Amino acid sequence: MSGADPRVRAVLKLAPVIPVYTPESVDEAVHVAQALFNGGLPVIEVTLRTAVAIDAIQAMVEAVPDAVVGAGTVLSAAQMEKVKAIGGRFAVAPGATERLYAAARDSDLPFLPGVATSSELMQGLEHGLDTFKFFPAVQAGGIGMLQAWNGPFGDVRFCPTGGISAQTARDFLHLPNVLCVGGSWLTTRALLQARDWAGIEQLAKASAALVG
Questions:
Q1: Which residues of the chain have pLDDT under 70?
Q2: What single string gives the DSSP state of each residue in 36-88?
Q3: Angle between helices 26-38 and 53-63 (to 10 degrees)
Q4: What integer pLDDT is reported at residue 3 of this predicted model?
Q5: Which residues does the annotation mark as catalytic?
Q6: What is the phi/psi pair of residue 92, to 5°?
């Protein structure tokens, strides 16, 4: 990959919030995708933390083709290839390794690696990237860290994720180097167990209106 991949920023600019969703069933995943998309959040990060996650992504892609569905918690080259094969549009990792950077290049999948330190960020820059997931955002320094990074890394943009709530999201979105935030508050276990798709759609609408 020579130079930064503009596709990553294009995805992150589609909405102020990227829901981070962990699926328990394929049926649930399809309802969640429809609710989030109808609520104005077209980008969905589906974590590979459950056995059904790959099937869920595939079903979401087929059910809501206009949504931009990608995978989170990508830890290996094999997962990267699988996500690409089933129609996933991007891959997000909590960190990054040399092998994972190479896998992203080989699969030609837009990749958002996680960084928590300046050294990790500089390693990503050496690989030609300029857009990162800041994770775990609140635990790793939050808004203060992002403000500090804006000096030496003024051209870098972030999607902070981890510990951000509906109440604090706007504070992150006001930062000049933040394109969007990732959040799991839209698909809480309580909402999913209640199959409250309308509630998820309402949360999506509120999140979509966070900027402006």
A1: 1-3, 212
A2: HHHTT--EEEEES-STTHHHHHHHHHHH-TTSEEEEES--SHHHHHHHHHTT-
A3: 40
A4: 66
A5: 45, 133
A6: -125, 135
Q: Which helix (H) or strand (E) holds 200?
A: helix 197-208
38: Cα separation from own chain's centroid? 18
pTM of the model: 0.96
What are φ and ψ of residue 17, in 5° steps? -130, 135
pLDDT of residue 89: 97
Note the pLDDT of residue 4.
Answer: 83
CB atoms within 10 A of CB 130: 16
The rounded distance, in Å, linking the Cα atoms of 9 and 178 is 11
Q: How far is CA 30 from CA 14, 173, 183, in A?
A: 20, 28, 19
